Amino acid sequence: MSVTKRYLLAAAAAVLLIGLTFIIPSFTSYQLAIVCAYLCGIAGLTLLTGAGGQLSLGQAALMAAGAYSYALSANAMADAGAEGPLLLLVPLAAAVFGAAVLGLAVGLAAGRLHGPYLAGFTMALVVALPAVTSTFSSVLGGDQGLWITVEKRPTALRGIVSTEAWQAWLAVICSVLVLTLLANLLHGRFGRHLRAVRDNPVAAALAGINPARTKITAFVISSAAAGMGGGLLAYTTQSAGPGAYSLVFSLFLLMAAVVGGIGSLTGAVWGALLLVALPHLISTATSRLELSADLSQRLDGNLAVAVFGAVLILVVLLAPQGIQGLLVRAGGRLRPPPSASLPPRSTEPAPPSPATAPSRIPAPSGQLPATPKGQ
Amino acid sequence: MIRSKLRLGTAVLAASALGLASCASPDEGGEAADVPGITDTTVTVGTHQPLTGPAAAGYSTISPATKAYFDYVNDKGGINGRTIEYIVKDDGYNPANTQTAVREMVLQDEVFALVGGLGTPPHSAVLDFVNDNEVPDLFVASGSPTWNQPEDYPYTYGFMVDYPTESRILATYAQEEFPEATYCFFGQDDDFGEEFQTGLEAVLGEDGLADAQVYSTANTDIAAQISSMKEAGCEVNFLATINGFSAQAVGTAAKLGYFPQWMASSAGGDFNTLSGYLGENTDKLLQGFVSANYLPGYSDTEDEWTAKFAEINEEYNAGAPFDGNTIFGMSIGYLFVEALQAAGENPTRESLMEALESGDVTGNGHAPLGFGGDSHRGYTGAMLTRVDNGVQSYFGTPYVVTGTEAEEYTVEEYTGERTAMPADGLPE
């Protein structure tokens, strides 16, 4: 029942946001599309780092894998003469698949690492990206990246919706889909396994959960979400290049997840919004001020980074559970009833949800043989 | 619980999107005939430039020069009573940023036209967008022939002499001057290098290049490539490199005790910029360095354009160092003002495009512009410069490259006169 309701609400959210694109200016629609694309990547981190406790700095590389998968498949299909919805959906699927495959490869190694070692390893992925693209520049287009043939909005819609609104539609639908799937996973058996492994791998193994497999699965799922984000970015910006997926961007994604509230998917929404809105608001503000050309040139681009850093420090000091944590606390003060957030780092195995609670103690069949440890 | 979370998420997204929407700037009002970016007193244009990031060192001084020229024009009363407002957005040479910056200028700031957007990768990313939105996309600061596709991209016009043209001119000169030499090539690992090499081979023959090496901007160590060229006995080396890598090539070769004749593209042959990289030995290292150019030379104090631009630079650009980038920026500014003037008293986007198609807009280069109904090519020729005792100056006559397709380009000497500078450097 609750799952059905979740689907209904997700559909309602999608319809509402799509309706919104008829009201807002097209530049804002474009920003909405970017927010949704970032949201996919950040939500993946929420699952991996928030629920799974695996600190990854490499989300941008996985988004890049999605973007390049999109670019290569879309261009190959366009060369072969494909058009219509196929040219839109197949590359998106390829983006998710490509990133998931990379995620699996990374996850297999990452399953053995933890803490700073994992962070270092995933960071190396992002740092290596420009070298990879220039080494295989005949396929990946070097520093310049790839220019993508994209399927534009259907002819029937031209004149009714702008390109930007159409991009926003696609991004809204895809990100709502990703968020719903992630919410299902987090609130289901997999989410409980994940948190159990995060909080105490030994205890989790004793309970019949295979920690390595759970970690790797988390990596693959998080990568697939990032791949969807990368695919959406590739579609919206019509290009895939190493410059768009820098280390700074990767750190920004993690910062957004932390500032928004690493424990919850709603926090990811906050983070994604902040990531797009903050630089925009800052540059709008500085352009309204009468600054000397030299000073505004120095501030342009740099000020947003500084403000983001300051916000991160403040959030970590004052509200370790991020914006979402703050809101929940504020909401809790207004009306006392049950708190509505996943307690991060709780020692309970899971917040029991009525639909799935009965199956929570014994591990499902098929998982036991893999965990002989301590038995 | 889940429900409340999702509901909250939806509310958050919706509220924030509305918030963003309300930030959009409202119409300023007072628009003449409802042309985007044009009011009775102003014309708003925009550009995207690498003010930060890897390309900033070589190119961040261009837009201040353009702005200085516009300020000068505005002080002289503007164009038909309208002053030019020039929006500069930093994209850090990153196509992903260019996407956002250009959309903001076109959709939110509602610029009349884009002027001098810089860089092949950044600008390629917005080519479809600006043409779909029918925004004049003028004088792209890149030598790629991509901008000359009037059929597919009717709103985009080039500016710089393109790589196929420039490479053919350098190769022709090399054949005349060093007929027996071993020719080699060092270029950037993208369209720039590729098209340059194709152009060189079109003149020198399929196997005219004894060695061809490439570099990636991500890797500044090019010792392997230069050693290979030295081993191959290269005597004349063509460079399809940006300034930083031209300097790197010359410096690395000198460390290896290797002093060939260099022939550089205009994109990487500005003496002042190179000397910034090479330091105190610049004069010795760059002695005899040949490069193509088509705009007034900044060291050419006899040139009326150079003198005027230097004066404007002193007064409106706070006396910033005067170099090739300054001339480049001001020349783009001049060309836009000339086009705007030709677009009539009450310019529209259509009349601006017509003015350019008429071919009456001439610019200030040593070679003619290729603008017309079926060509959006920028400068169609170039002249060569040589460095002698630390001074880079023009020599010989300009070349022009004619033909409609790159495959059938032919190089000729250009005998036409450059347009004289109108009084005060203001188009009439």
UniProtKB/TrEMBL annotation, chain A:
InterPro entries: ABC_transp_permease, LivM-like. Pfam families: BPD_transp_2. One of its GO terms (molecular function) is branched-chain amino acid transmembrane transporter activity. Residues 356-365 have a biased composition (Low complexity). The chain crosses the membrane at residues 7-24, 30-48, 60-78, 84-110, 117-140, 166-186, 216-235, 247-278, 299-319. GO terms for cellular component: plasma membrane. Residues 334-375 are annotated as: Disordered. It is found in: Cell membrane. It is a multi-pass membrane protein. Keywords: Cell membrane, Membrane, Transmembrane, Transmembrane helix. This is Branched-chain amino acid ABC transporter permease. It comes from Arthrobacter yangruifuii. The lineage of its organism: Bacteria, Bacillati, Actinomycetota, Actinomycetes, Micrococcales.
